[in-house]
Amino acid sequence: MKVRILRSGLEDLAVGRRFYDQRAGGIGGYFFDSLFSEIDSLSLFAGIHRVQFGFHRLLARRFPFAIYYRILDGEAVVFRVLDCRRDPNWIQNALRKAG
Predict the structure, then answer these.
(1) How many CB atoms lie within 10 A of CB 28?
(2) Please, where are the H alpha helices in 1-99?
(3) What is the pLDDT of residues 27-52, one digit of tens each?
(4) What is the pTM of this model?
(5) What is the CATH number assigned to the segment(s) 2-98?
């Protein structure tokens, strides 16, 4: 299955990378690579993840982030990549705005 990341998802990844780069050098790059690896796995496993707030939610293994996506026209479309430590109401509102 083809995977597409919307601008909102790419912006979320950039914010996360900056956050981790401020904590320790090199961690931001590791974060970015780890999350892209998780997103790439959607080409094989899209659709098997739990649905939350109207989106499939893939939980990242190494960082407390979730990848929210939908399957549209045979394609896994990543809408947001959000920090799970945020208030659930904030996450729900962010997803409502995204799609």
Answers:
(1) 18
(2) 7-23, 27-40, 42-45, 88-98
(3) 999 999 999 999 999 999 999 999 99
(4) 0.95
(5) 3.30.2310.20
